[in-house]
Design brief:
This protein is an alpha/beta fold and 261 residues long. Helices cover 29% and strands 25% of the residues. The chain has one domain: Stationary-phase Survival Protein Sure Homolog, Chain: A (3-Layer(aba) Sandwich). The protein starts with a strand and ends with a helix. Its cofactor is a divalent metal cation. One of its GO terms (cellular component) is cytoplasm.
Length: 261
């Protein structure tokens, strides 16, 4: 098996090392793991691609590359340049430091990397590690992902639905904010929504007098509806959420046609 690995935290991120180990376990001794990751952190870039200027790419070691671009750029680079036409069997993106549950899915560069893999017609999975008080006391805050990551990916490859539609399915996996031994199991969930937890901006003045804005997040432990990714993560479960790049609100089409056509 040939696996392409990327992330949004950057080529030196500890979560990428965790994912490379997961990929090596899944690929097996006769498999190949290729890493193409951003040269610098690209958190929050979503599914952005860079087409207004060229992207520099550098080989750092055997099957290991850094690109000055987004996770989606890295997938494009891996599929169409680094692998030189030898398409990967699987794209893995992560392991993100912090959850990509709930509304974070929309902003996530980790999910964006997996989305690009799906748009390229490849089985793709995003993986993220929810952080919380319990992970702060661990020697390795990625312990849950490291302990259960390979088994989760194998379960998806063996049992999940992999279609070949135009906007094909891909999967968003979030590991709970607990120690590896405390993981309660796996749940298939829908995307949740943390109410009243919008991103905001905080203005600051530089010594030069120029005004800058910092984007501020919100609490990540806010309750969501039962059965959603955030709620199950907070209960100690690994969550698997099926996603598509198709953003159409299909449930509104019939009524909207009646109103407008």
């Amino acid at each position: 098996m040939r696996i392409l690995v990327t992330n949004d935290d950057g080529i030196n991120a500890p979560g990428l090392k965790v994912l490379e180990a997961i990929a090596a376990a899944v690929a097996g001794p006769s498999g190949e793991v290729w890493t193409v990751a951003p040269a610098f952190e690209q958190s929050g870039v979503g599914h952005a691609i860079t087409y207004t200027h060229p992207t520099m790419i550098a080989e750092l070691g055997p099957r290991r590359f850094a690109a000055e671009g987004s996770p989606a750029d890295c997938v494009l680079a891996g599929v169409h340049d680094v692998l030189k036409g030898q398409r990967p069997d699987l794209v893995l993106s992560g392991v993100n430091r912090g959850n990509n549950s709930g509304e974070n899915v929309v902003y996530s560069g980790t999910v964006g990397g997996a989305m690009e893999g799906a748009l390229q017609g490849l089985p793709s999975i995003a993986l993220s590690q929810f952080m919380g008080p319990a992970t702060q006391t661990l020697d390795d805050p990625f312990e849950a992902a490291a302990r259960h990551g390979a088994a989760t990916v194998r379960a998806l490859l063996d049992k999940a639905i992999w279609d070949d539609s135009d906007y094909r399915l891909f999967y968003n996996v979030n590991f709970p904010p607990v120690a590896g031994d405390d993981v309660a199991g796996l749940r298939v969930t829908r995307q949740g929504y943390r109410p009243n937890t919008y991103f905001t901006v905080e203005p600051h003045l530089a010594p030069s007098g120029r005004r800058f804005l910092w984007v501020r997040g919100a609490a990540q432990s806010v309750d969501t509806e039962p059965g959603t990714d955030v709620a199950e993560n907070m209960a100690g479960y690994i969550t698997v959420t099926p996603l598509r790049a198709d953003l159409t609100a299909h449930e509104t089409l019939a009524e909207l046609k009646d109103r407008l056509e």
